[in-house]
Amino acid sequence: MLIGLPGLLVFAGMAALYSWLVYHPAWLLEAEVPGHDGRPAVDPSKAAQINLAGVFQKSDGHPASLPGAWTSFRGPAASNIATDPTSLADSWPEGGPKVVWKVPVGDGYAAPTVLNGCVYLMDYDVEKRADAVRCLSLEDGKEIWRRSYDINIKRNHGMSRTIPAVTDRYVVTVGPKCHVVCLDAARGDFRWGIDLTKDFGTEVPLWYSGQCPFIDNDVAVIAPCGASALLIGVACETGKVLWQTPNPRGWKMSHSSVIPMTLLGRKVYLYSALGGTACVSAEPDSSGKLLWDLPWDAKVVAPSPVKAGEDLIFVTAGYGKGSRLLKVQATAGGMGVEVVYDKTPDQILSCEQQTPIFHEGLLYGIMPKDAGALKGQFVCMKPDGTTVWSSGADNRFGLGPFLLADGKFLILDDEGALTMLDATKPGYSLLGHAEILHGHDAWGPLALAGSRLLLRDMNNLACVELGAGTAS
Amino acid sequence: MSELTKLDRRDFMRGAAAVTFAGAAYAAVGDKTEGTVWQLDPNKCTQCGRCSTHCVLNPSAVKCMNQFNICGYCDLCFGYLQPGSRGRDTGAENQLCPTAAIKRTYIEDPYYEYVIDEERCIGCAKCVKACLVFGNASFYLQIRQDICINCNECSIAKACPSDSFSRVPASTPYIYLTGGVETTIPVRKGEEPQEKTVQHPA
Predict the structure, then answer these.
(1) B77-80: Cβ within 8 A, 24+ apart
(2) CB-CB under 8 Å, A300 with B76
(3) What is the largest CA-CA distance in chain A?
(4) Beta strands at A334-343 and A322-331: parallel, antiparallel or unpaired
(5) B202 in contact with A, Cβ within 8 Å
(6) Is B90 within 8 Å of A299 when comparing Cβ atoms?
(7) Distance between CA atoms of A176 and A106, rounded to whole angstroms?
C-alpha cells in the first residue's frame, strides 16, 4: 500500500475542503427574471395588412320613423344623462317593460348608437371572422346593411367592446385591434380607414380596444396613444389627419374614451391613458394642443374622465386603484392642474368598467369588487368621498351599465335585469325591476333613443319600450 | 388458582387462532364504513393566510390549484402579478406569489397558462384572493391528501376563522366552488381528473 490510511484521510479531507469551497448554497435556485414565459416579440409594422373597405352587404331592414338619438358613447352630452325630453313610464307592468325586439350579436360588450331610426353597432362576426359595422332598424332590429372586414379575433373576455360615433353623414368605429373606419351613415359607403397600430404605433390594449370614437364638427377625435401621437383629429370627409398631439411620455391606449368638456370656459378633450390623464385643446385655433398631462399609474383604466364641477375632474379606475379628483386653474400659458386627492376603493366611488354620472353636485356609480361591504352597490357620493346613500346589500349590480333619463336611473346588472330608480328622491327609491335578457356579462353601456332603451348582454341586443303609457 | 392460570399452551394457541380468524373474517365481510380526511371548503374560505402558518407541516399541506377550464388565461393575471407591477412578465418584482410558485407560459396570442408548482406553494392564498376579486376565481386552496398527515385534530381547522375545514369521505377528498357549470375536480397538471363532478359559477 503506497498511500496508506493517512494518505486516504488527507485526500478525503482535501476533497471535502474543495467541495466546501466551491459549493454555492444557491446553485439550485432559479433566477426569476423577465422573459421566462416565452412571450414572443411583436413588431406591429409586420402585422397583416387589413382591407378595411371590406365587404358590403345590404339587407331588407328599413330605418324606423321613430324619434330620438344617442349618437356616441355616453349620449349627446357625453354625460350619460339623456337630454331628450321624452317622458318615461314611472312604473312597469308585472312582466316588466315590453321587449320590442331582440337580436343575436357576437360575443362582447359593444353597445349601439342611434340616429335617424338606425341602430349602429360595431359587432364581431364569429363565423366569418370579421369586424362588422352593422346598421339595424330601431323599429324591429332587422339589419339594413353591414360592412365587414376580415380579422381574426379570439375570445378574450368578449371580442367587441366599442361604440360607434354617428352624425347625419358619418359613422366612425374603432375595432378590437384598433382599426378605425369611417362610413357613410345612411348607405354604409366606405370613406376611409386607419390602422392605428401601423400608422401611429398603437399597442392593442389587453382584452382589445375599448375606446369609443367621438365626432366633433365632422372631425373624428381618437386617442391612438402610440409612439407618434397621443390624440388625433381626422376629417371625416377625407380621412386626413388635421392635427395630432404628441405623446412624449409614451403613454399607452387604455379602455377609456376621449371626453369633450368645457373647463374654465375653454373647450377641451380629456383622456385617461395608461400612464396618466391628458387635457388637449378643442378650440378651433388650437385644436390638438396639449394643455397639461398628469401621470397616474393605474394598470387598467376603463372609465373615462368626468367633469365634476366647473374646474374639477373626477378620474377613476378599478382593479384596486381607486380614484382621484383634479382641479384645473388658468395659468399664463393656458391651463394647469393639481391633484385634490388620491383615494382608494374603500374611501371613494371607484369604478372598474363603467364611467360614473355627475348630476347636481353628486357622483353616481357602481362600486368595484374590492370595495368591501359596498361591493357591487349603486352609490351616490359627494366628490369628497362622503357616501350619501347606497343601494344596500340586497341590491348589487356587478359591472353593469347605467344612465339617467327623465329623472330616473336605469341600471342593468350582470345578468341583464333592469332596475329603475327615482332620481328625484334622495336614497334608493325603487320604481321598477324586470328580468330582460337572462344572459351574462351584460356590461355594454345603455343607449336611450326617445323612449326606446337598447341594452345587451354577451350575446344578445334588445330594445325595450319605456315610454309613458306604452310600457306594457 | 384462577381458571385462567389453568389454560395450557395448546388452549391458548387455539384461542389466539380463533380470535385471529374472527378478526380476519370481520375485516373481510364486516363494517365497511369509509374513512374520512380533512378538507377545506373554498366556498367558505376567506383567504386569511392561516393555512400557510398553522399547518404542522412546513410547508403546509394546503396548496393552491388552478381550475384550467375556469381560468381566463389572461396576460394580465391578477393572481400572478403584483398590484401596480410595471411589467407583465416573469420578473420577481412583478410576481405576487412570495415563493414564485406560479409558472407562467405563453400559449398563443393573447393567452398565458398558469401552473402551480406545489413544491414551492405554501398555501398563503394571496393568488387566490386576487383571482377571486378581479379575475375568474380559478385559483383555490385544497389540502393535498398525499401530503397531509391527517392529524386527528387539524391545527389549521382550529385556527380557521371561517370554519372552512371539515372531515370528508376519503374516496372524494376534494371540494370545489358550487353553483353554475359542472366540471370535474382537477388534480395536478397531467394527472387524470376524478370521476366526481362538482359545480362552479359560469
Answers:
(1) B77/B104, B77/B112, B77/B114, B77/B131, B77/B135, B78/A319, B78/B130, B78/B131, B78/B133, B78/B134, B78/B135, B79/B114, B79/B127, B79/B128, B79/B130, B79/B131, B79/B135, B79/B138, B79/B139, B80/B104, B80/B114, B80/B127
(2) yes
(3) 115
(4) antiparallel
(5) yes
(6) no
(7) 12
Reported pTM: 0.85
Phi, psi of B93 (to 5 degrees): -70, -15
Residues of chain A contacting B, Cβ within 8 Å: 31-40, 42, 154, 156-157, 206-207, 297, 299-300, 318-320, 369-370, 440
Under 8 Å between Cβ of A273 and A223: yes
Contact A253, A244 (CB under 8 A): no
Q: Using DSSP bridges, classify how beta strands B62-66 and B139-143 pair: parallel, antiparallel or unpaired.
A: antiparallel
For residue B167, how far is the Cα from the chain centroid? 12
Three-state DSSP class for residue B159: helix
Q: Please, what sign has the CA dihedral across residues A293, A299, A301, A307?
A: negative
Nearest residue to A206 via CA among B78, B137, B128, B93:
B78
CA distances to A14, A77, A146, A147 from A131, rounded to whole Å, are 73, 28, 10, 8
What pLDDT does residue A72 have? 97
Three cell numbers written together for B186 = 382537477
Cβ-defined contact of A37 to B89 (cutoff 8 Å):
yes
As given in the structure block, the three cell numbers for residue B112 are: 398565458
Q: How many residues does chain A have?
A: 472
Q: Rounded to an integer, what distance in angstroms lies between the CA atom of residue A206 and that of residue A468?
A: 42
Quick one: which H or E segment has residue A233?
Answer: strand A231-235
Distance (Å, whole) CA A320 – CA A343: 11
Nearest to A63 by CA among A173, A213, A185, A170: A185
Tell me, yes or no, if B95 comes closer than 8 A to chain A by beta carbon: yes
What whole-number distance in Å separates Cα of residue A151 and Cα of residue B7? 94
In order of A429, B1, B136, B149, B187, the CA distances from B139 in angstroms are: 38, 71, 8, 24, 13
Test A34 with B85 for CB contact under 8 angstroms.
no
First to last CA, chain A: 110
Which has the closest alpha carbon to A252: B92, B130, B88, B113? B88
Per-residue confidence in pLDDT tens, chain A, 472 aa = 567 888 899 999 999 999 988 888 888 788 899 999 999 887 766 777 899 999 999 999 999 999 999 999 999 999 999 999 999 999 999 999 999 999 999 999 999 999 999 999 999 999 999 999 999 999 999 999 999 999 999 988 899 999 999 999 999 999 999 999 999 999 999 999 999 999 999 999 999 999 999 999 999 999 999 999 999 999 999 999 999 999 999 999 999 999 999 999 999 999 999 999 999 999 999 999 999 999 999 989 999 999 999 999 999 999 889 999 999 999 987 899 999 999 999 889 999 999 999 999 999 999 998 888 899 999 999 998 899 999 999 999 999 999 999 999 999 999 999 999 999 998 999 999 999 999 999 999 999 999 999 999 999 999 999 998 764 4
CB contact under 8 A, A319 and B111: no
Cell triple for B48: 386569511
In this prediction, the answer to ipTM > 0.85 reads: no
